[in-house]
């Protein structure tokens, strides 16, 4: 069953979501060739605790870290490692926090240094698809309207693979609540969206095939063809007229611009 949230509960959730955004922005400030995803995870873990919250993922079904760190062909659920990130890599950082009884859960794919034009396009289109999904996340629509918008834009217009096995979800006192929010589907189908629902919308988009496999570490999901994948996630409260986005990429994008300016100075 779907757990509907009061206005006051949505404000608490906004606090959790914005702390995730802030954590991702702090990661954005230090991500560069040479740093490891293990270091980024330790940094995020400490930042979350220093802000009076608990990392949601740590211990969730025995996941051992605060962040999922998925590099290049890893789609989601990657383990942080001590390998140094290299110029041209991409890394999807997925983080959750639990604060005041509610979870926030957001993800962002970062470019490490300068990446190829085709990778840049994958990142741009995947992020845009998230906002196209969010446009449909309003009272009276259905989950399938969000799903269709994301799939149409990424698959039909750009020829990318839309991961089928993993989906967005309701969010609240639990990290994963109903309904499921797939990134593929038909308009006018699925659960009806109603005021008070809070959902995580999270397109996972592959440059090549939609097919994935489980790495032998038991967690990491990788693309079957080894091509890169991107992942962006926002938390959204359903209301009338226009979705209320509880998380924010503003500070992350400002940090990315600052990094780009810094590297062009040399
Ligand atoms: Mg997430
Ligand atoms: Mg999620």
Any descriptors?
266 residues; alpha+beta; 4-stranded antiparallel sheet; 5-stranded antiparallel sheet; Creatine Amidinohydrolase; 5 helices; binds magnesium ion
Characterization of this structure:
The protein has 266 residues and is of the alpha+beta class. It has one domain (7-261): Alpha-Beta Complex (Creatine Amidinohydrolase). It has five helices and 15 strands. The protein has helices at 7-30, 37-50, 117-135, 143-156, 250-264, and strands spanning 54-55, 67-71, 74-76, 90-99, 102-111, 161-162, 168-170, 177-181, 198-201, 204-206, 212-214, 221-223, 229-231, 234-237, 244-245. The strands form four sheets. A five-stranded antiparallel sheet has the order 8-7-9-14-15. Strand 7 and strand 8 form a beta hairpin. The longest helix is centred in the N-terminal third of the chain and has 24 residues, at 7-30. The chain is globular and about 45 Å long. The relative contact order is 0.19. One magnesium ion binds at residues 94, 96, 105, 107, 202, 233.
SSE order and pairing:
Blueprint: H1 7-30, H2 37-50, E1 54-55, E2 67-71, E3 74-76, E4 90-99, E5 102-111, H3 117-135, H4 143-156, E6 161-162, E7 168-170, E8 177-181, E9 198-201, E10 204-206, E11 212-214, E12 221-223, E13 229-231, E14 234-237, E15 244-245, H5 250-264
Antiparallel strand pairs: 1-4, 2-4, 3-12, 4-5, 6-10, 7-8, 7-9, 9-14, 10-13, 11-12, 14-15
């Amino acid at each position: 069953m779907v757990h509907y949230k009061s206005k006051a509960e949505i404000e608490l959730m906004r606090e959790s979501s914005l702390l995730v955004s802030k954590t991702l922005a702090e990661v954005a400030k230090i991500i560069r060739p040479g740093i490891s995803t293990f270091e980024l995870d330790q940094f995020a873990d400490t930042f979350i605790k220093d802000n009076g919250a608990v990392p949601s993922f740590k211990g969730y079904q025995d996941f051992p870290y605060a962040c999922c760190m998925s590099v290049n062909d890893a789609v989601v659920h990657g383990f942080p490692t001590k390998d140094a990130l290299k110029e041209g890599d991409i890394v999807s950082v997925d983080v959750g926090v639990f604060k005041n009884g509610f979870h926030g859960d957001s993800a962002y794919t970062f470019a490490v240094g300068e990446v190829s034009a085709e990778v840049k396009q994958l990142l741009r289109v995947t992020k845009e698809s998230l906002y196209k999904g969010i446009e449909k996340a309003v009272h009276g629509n259905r989950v399938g309207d969000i799903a269709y918008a994301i799939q149409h834009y990424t698959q039909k217009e750009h020829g990318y693979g839309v991961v089928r096995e993993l989906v967005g979800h309701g969010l609240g006192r639990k990290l994963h609540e109903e309904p499921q929010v797939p990134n593929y589907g038909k308009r006018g189908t699925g659960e009806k969206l109603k005021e008070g629902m809070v959902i995580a919308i999270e397109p996972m988009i592959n440059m090549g095939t939609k097919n994935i496999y489980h790495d032998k570490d038991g967690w990491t999901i990788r693309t079957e063809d080894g091509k890169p994948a991107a992942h962006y996630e926002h938390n959204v409260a359903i209301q009338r007229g226009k979705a209320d986005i509880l998380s924010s990429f503003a500070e992350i994008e400002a940090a990315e611009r600052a990094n780009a300016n810094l590297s062009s100075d040399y």
